[in-house]
Amino acid sequence: MSIFPDTSFICSLYRKQHxxxxxxxxxKTLSEPLLVxxxxxxxxxxxxxxxxxxxxxxxxxxxxxxxxAAMMRALQSxxxxxxxxxxxxxxxxxxxxxxxxxxxxxxxxxxxxADILHVATAVHLGxxxxxxxxxxxxxxxxAEGMVVPL
Length: 150
What we know:
- By secondary structure, this protein is mostly helical.
- The protein has a domain of 103 residues: 5'-nuclease (Rossmann fold), CATH 3.40.50.
- It is built from 7 helices and 4 strands; from the N terminus they run βααβααβααβα.
- The strands form 2 sheets. A two-stranded parallel ribbon has the order 1-4. A two-stranded parallel ribbon has the order 2-3.
């Protein structure tokens, strides 16, 4: 069964959050690597850099570069150990699907582009399940026929 996560799920694996126990427990049940796209990894890495910048400006926000580097190492280790598997979708097809999702759901559901691209990637890959802690993105994935078990 193909399962695709969004960034909220990936962040919960690599940084302690209130959703982390749920994400870690779910990942432990998987018998196959969790699929991730280059876009998902880019968004995660961008988030680490952005949070480090916030921390440098105001120590009450974000997290340190050291913490971000540790998360990056853990991610890279999971990619090397095949806990995560990077897939290379046909981005032209993902964008075609994203355009359809946008036209169908954005005005009524208020979905942002990154959320639409993650769901479109999952649709493109034929994912049966979508992993997210974002309630609005969950609605979008479910509207497209995917199970969101969290």
